[in-house]
Specification:
By secondary structure, the protein is an alpha+beta fold. It is built from four helices and ten strands, in the order E-E-E-E-H-H-E-E-E-H-E-H-E-E. The strands form two sheets. Strands 1-4-5-6-7-8-10-9 form an eight-stranded mixed beta sheet, sandwiched between helices. It has a two-stranded antiparallel ribbon with strand order 2-3. The two termini are 30 Å apart.
Amino acid sequence: MRACRGGQGQRWERLLHLTGAVSQGGRITEVNELVVEQVEWYDARAVALRQAMAVEMDERYSSHRSDDPEKRAAVDAALHIPTEKVLATVLVVDSEAHAVAHAVLRDLAGEWEVKRVIVDASVRGRGVGRLLMNSLADIARARGARRLILQTGNRQPDAVALYERLGYQSIPVYEPYIEAIPFSLCYELPLR
């Protein structure tokens, strides 16, 4: 077992060791030890995963893109995460020290919002997303949050399925997404 490195001046530990084999599309694949790390927003691995997510989301939502500069600016503003609002940046790292998943908790008007959830395509369907999301809930709960909220889009059925399996419940679309991203799907997970 390895200890997790905490970021932002804190030590925080969480470890999952998956043993045995997992059926993946009819073939058996082994899952290695995974470590959850809380890191700085600007950690190079975190930045790289956020860039990969941006490319994937651009592909998924290309038909939703507006040529209207005001609408594009509204979307960009809704999705922007001011670094001073980041409460935690979390990675899941494999046994070879490669970051395979990423998420952020941010303060959105006093709420704990989950943002920038990405699991590398090479490890999807192996429990990495579940580990990541459960770790976010643990961090928020330990720091006194009453619930987590999140926004996703209507072209991410895999993400929606994960959130619903974890007990997230659909809620009305909230600001800043109501007008900027009308195809948003929003969820909450009560923590108390």
